[in-house]
Write a structure and sequence with these properties.
1 helix; alpha+beta
Length: 183
């Protein structure tokens, strides 16, 4: 009978050396540094799109409320400084306001909806229109006066242009964003 002595097998050691790990971390750091600005820009544009779309939905809702309540519904913008907001309400022209402290109405106006854009989201609201407000007629669903509402985030902006028929179109000044047509 012949016996063989078992010889110990050498296994290759697996794992990373310190140098390999440092190179890997350096490459990942460079990739993250390149991707972070574009990711930040993407998030800002998504927030901008969300705020502009929500505004369109609220305008449509307010037109429906005017018909349902058979009352004139007003939109008042509170644009200025780091705080932007808008309110929908029934009642006299300047009976409701919104600002950094929130929305408030004086009697007999009824607040229907208040929306505040948080400064931390990086989206702001402005309007070149004098008076910064709309009146929605309950019988025809028309709006007066025509108004442009501008949502902006960094260099990107979306203009929501509402005509007297109550229709709103979206556009973007140069350079266009979110696939919108140029204004």
């Amino acid at each position: 009978m012949q016996h063989e002595l078992a010889t110990p097998r050498r296994h290759a050691e697996s794992g990373l050396t310190l140098a390999e790990m440092l190179v890997t971390l350096a490459v990942l750091g460079i990739l993250a540094a390149v991707a972070l600005p574009s990711l930040s820009d993407l998030l800002a544009r998504r927030r901008l799109d969300g705020a502009a779309t929500e505004y369109l939905n609220h305008l449509q809702w307010a037109r429906q409320q005017a018909v349902q309540l058979n009352r004139k519904v007003r939109l008042k913008l509170g644009a200025g400084g780091p705080h932007s907001c808008y309110v929908f309400y029934t009642g006299a022209a300047d009976n409701c306001q919104c600002n950094a402290q929130g929305a408030r109405c004086t009697d007999p106006s009824q607040l229907l909806l208040a929306v505040a854009l948080r400064p931390s989201d990086g989206v702001s609201l402005s309007t070149p229109s004098a008076g910064a407000g709309l009146l929605i007629d309950p019988l025809r669903g028309t709006v007066s006066p025509a108004m442009t509402t501008v949502f902006s985030a960094g260099q990107a902006a979306v203009h929501q242009i509402t005509n007297i028929m109550g229709r709103t179109r979206s556009c973007s000044p140069a350079p266009p964003v979110l696939g919108l047509p140029a204004c």
